Amino acid sequence: MILRATRRIFFLALAPLLASCGPPYVVAPTGAQDSRTAKQGFASQGAASSGQKAVFPEARFEFGEVLSGAVVEHDFVLNNPGSAPMLIEKVSMTTPLLVTQMPHEVAPGAEGKIHFKLDTVDLEGEFEGTILVFLNDPALPQARLAFAGRIVPAVELSPMAAFFVAGQRGRGGRAAIEIVNHEPESLRIEKIEHPANRFTTQLDTLKRGQRYRLTLALKPDGPGGRAADTILIRTSSKRTPVLKVGANTYLYERVHAFPDVVDFGTLHAGDAGHAAVTLIIHQEGGNDFNAQLSTDVPGLSVKSERGPRGDQYQAELTLSLQRIPVGPIKGSIFIDTNDAQFRRVIVPVSGLVER
């Protein structure tokens, strides 16, 4: 899961100089750009001789890729080739960006530097920060700057810190994620812990000390239904000694319904219209599948239609909001079939009706 800090825009009241807080540590970011490689800047269209004129040689700073917890700092330069003082009235920015130093005024023919700091301790993934500088230049009263890059954890789970594996009984299923080391020290995977009754795992080395692949294989003869487990990966990293990976698995039968649980959520009695859910009933490998659907849920209408291939049905489940009683929705859809092994499939139905 990617964790991002909540982004809000806030305004900074000006003082002649703002002091910087001492960061826990500062790094030289990989791929940081200077004015020669940053995105093209911009300037106001006012005539230099008529007063103040704002020129930003650089409008976008891209710091590349840094480890989560690093502090990235950068100066945006403001030139004033005009004939009158340039005033910085206020600055707003995406949190957690901070201004640590900036001038109140830039004299004619001079330049000022606005110093920004980004603490990435609570950030992961892509960061796109917006900075608005409000000026007394009639031709450019508001300048928009960008502060962007990618924050990676010390040890990254790619594409995500979770498995989602579904498979039919007798076949199972599998999926893989990669463990990527972004630290300068070599990484060892010391142990992998998980429940063993539903699935197995296998670790492969792609590049020793740097990249590993973890594969989850859902057992074809394991317990049926859905389960959410946790895999613990113990590593040699001091910053990330334990990685947690979600293992979401679903072993379904040869005849099964999707979804296997119907939840209407929270509804309001007396509202116009209806709530509807589509239910698919499938027989793997069949061509003469027959199913009859019924329900014990008050006010629930069930209409089904057989598919052209003869191996599945599509059912429309409809609740009239004007007919259902107030209180919890609780009951089942009963699917009676001509399959000798699966004579009846039951799908639970739930929800809540409020006034």
Keywords for this structure?
355 residues; mainly beta; Immunoglobulin-like; 3 domains; 7-stranded mixed beta sheet; 26 strands; flat; disordered N terminus
Structural write-up:
The protein is an all-beta fold and 355 residues long. It has 3 domains: 9-152, Immunoglobulin-like (Sandwich); 155-252, Immunoglobulin-like, CATH 2.60.40.10; 255-354, Immunoglobulins (Immunoglobulin-like, Sandwich). Helices cover 0% and strands 59% of the residues. It contains no helices and 26 strands. The strands form 6 sheets. Strands 1, 2, 3, 5, 7, 9 and 10 form a 7-stranded mixed β-sheet that branches. A 4-stranded antiparallel β-sheet has the order 11-13-16-15, with no helix packed on it. Strands 12-18-17-14 form a 4-stranded mixed β-sheet, with no helix packed on it. A hairpin with a 6-residue loop joins strand 25 (327-337) and strand 26. The radius of gyration is 30 Å and the shape is flat.
Instruction: Provide the domain count.
Output: 3
CATH superfamily of the largest domain: Immunoglobulins
Name the helix and strand elements from N-terminus to C-terminus, one letter apiece. Answer: EEEEEEEEEEEEEEEEEEEEEEEEEE
As for the CATH topology of the largest domain, it is Immunoglobulin-like
| CATH C-level class of the largest domain | Mainly Beta
Separate helix tally: 0
% residues in beta strands: over 45%
What is the percent of helical residues? under 10%
Gyration radius, rounded: 30 Å
Secondary-structure-derived class: mainly beta
Uncertain spans, ≥5 residues at pLDDT below 50? 1-38
How many beta-strand segments? 26
Largest sheet composition: 7 strands, mixed
Looking at the structure, what is the overall shape?
Answer: flat
Oligomer: single chain
Cα-to-Cα separation, first versus last residue: 37 Å
Mean pLDDT: 86
Architecture per CATH nomenclature, i.e. the level-2 architecture of the largest domain: Sandwich
